[in-house]
Write a structure and sequence with these properties.
single chain, 403 residues, Rossmann fold, 15 helices, 16 strands, RNA-binding
Length: 403
RNA sequence: GUGAGAUUAGCUCAGCUGGUUAGAGCACUGGUUUGUGGUGCCGGGGGUCGCGGGUUCGAAUCCCGUAUCUCACCCCA
């Protein structure tokens, strides 16, 4: 038997109903916030992700589905959505046109990781990207938007916030942090030794308890923000406070992708295991120019769809439509004709083999039909059809023409 | 990529220290004296015991390998 590839799932029936419901809610909310849908390719040039997500990230370092195509191009399946949207934004010269653009997207992403709960090799993200707005009000707005989506779906969460600073205040802070790490070099774990060289900010994120004890005294970026970043962060928290949107400031929250700056946030669920980040995002004011575009402020987020699926509760579907059945072979053609006619206005399910009334009622019940319509010898004699409402239990025989 | 556990009917699982035709509940299907479901009763079908080797007179059971799933690390949505 041929099976699906490791970490790649089929989405069927009940799961798909929740998948679909999520997208309806998320797309509706995005529309009300003024975002427009964009579709970008699943396959992109590998360099796009090297230059945006960053060489130091694990995503680019070891998780990409990368290969050389028949034309000799170095390509890969997209591991995240922002880079493609930014590429399209620049390619179609929105950066030159100027102004404000708000886009959203959803679709599959690919990362070659070891699968576990909430972590697949092919998974789905819903994300938005906002271009041309430097105001931190947009950051606040996006956070409220994620909140709207989760509230509508009935999903509980906590919001974690941090500021990663900008190109003015981050470099001096990084130097400061590195000298702190150097000073404690012998006490920290091997992972942190490595991170010190590749991406020193990430040491703050270390799960090792002994390391954390040391980093408790590490310099905090929050204390070293430049006046502009500091003011923006205060404005952001003030706006959230006004909307009674609760959050915790986590100075160790570091986005794993290189392009983030200033606002960084993560929505966490406590109900889904170790892979508990259900949404993440932040500002990336410098990314457009890194990809050869005209400098444009930008902010966005992405939601991990699979991680939400088990948290979404759908109401039981109501009974709807008709079930058509025949009790003898002679009535079969008539049943098909009548069912087909009914389909012009209603949902209709037609059974193609003659069965007992009991069997038809059982079938009708199983497919959640509201009405069970059956024709047998008796009905055929009077040119009628027997119909039972499975909810009210009312039953009657009506003329075929009045159906 | 590392460590740990799991894998027996469509689903959830039992199967003790290796021993004859591998079980249960649910689901499916048929019947219930002949046309009434979701809710009675009786019956029936369905399993190369993940896959490949090995040990043994004999393996679902022991050993090795491998695949997948789950959990943790790591990473991130």
């Amino acid at each position: 038997m041929i099976r699906s590839l490791r970490g790649m799932n089929d989405i069927l029936e009940e799961e798909y109903r929740r998948f679909d419901y999520f997208h309806k809610v998320a797309c509706d909310v995005a529309g009300r916030y003024g975002f427009h849908y964009v579709e970008t390719p699943l396959l992109e040039e590998t360099a796009l992700f090297r230059r945006s997500v960053g060489e130091s990230s694990d995503i680019v370092g070891k998780e990409m589905y990368q290969f050389i195509d028949k034309g000799g191009n170095d390509v890969c399946l997209r591991p995240e959505g922002t880079a493609g949207v930014v590429r399209a934004f620049i390619q179609h010269k929105y950066d030159k046109k100027g102004g404000v653009y708000r886009f959203f997207y959803h679709g599959p992403m690919f990362r070659y990781e070891r699968p576990q709960k909430g972590r697949l090799r092919e998974f789905h993200q819903f994300g938005v990207e906002s271009f041309g707005i430097a105001s931190v009000y947009e950051d606040a707005s996006l956070i409220l938007m994620v909140g709207d989506i989760f509230d509508t779906l009935g999903i509980g969460y906590t919001l974690q916030l941090n500021s990663l600073g900008c190109h003015e205040c981050m470099p001096p802070y990084k130097e400061h942090l590195i000298s702190f790490i150097e000073a404690h070099s012998e006490q920290i774990c091997a992972d942190c030794q490595r991170r010190k060289m590749t991406n020193p900010i990430r040491v703050l994120d270390c799960k090792n308890g002994e390391c954390q004890a040391i980093y408790a005294d590490a310099p905090k970026l929050m204390d070293h923000l430049c006046s502009s970043c500091s003011l923006d962060f205060k404005t952001l928290t003030a706006r959230l406070d006004e909307h009674a949107f609760s959050y915790t400031i986590d100075t160790h929250l570091v986005r794993g992708l290189d392009y983030y700056s200033k606002t960084a946030f993560e929505f966490i669920s406590s109900d889904i295991g170790a892979q508990n980040a259900i949404a993440g995002g932040g500002r990336y004011d410098r990314l457009i120019e890194f990809l050869d575009g005209k400098p444009t402020p930008a902010v966005g987020f992405a939601i991990g769809v699979e991680r939400l699926l088990e948290l979404i509760q759908l109401p039981q579907p109501e009974r709807e439509g008709y079930y058509f059945g025949a009790m003898d072979a002679q009535s079969l053609p008539l049943i098909l004709t009548l069912g087909q006619r009914k389909r012009r206005t209603d949902k209709a399910i037609i059974e193609y083999s003659a069965k007992s009334l009991k069997a038809h009622l059982k079938n009708a019940d199983r497919v959640h039909a509201r009405h069970c319509a059956v024709i047998g010898e008796n009905e055929r004699k009077q040119n009628g059809i027997w119909i039972k409402d499975l909810v009210t239990k009312e039953e009657m025989v009506i003329p075929i023409d009045s159906l």
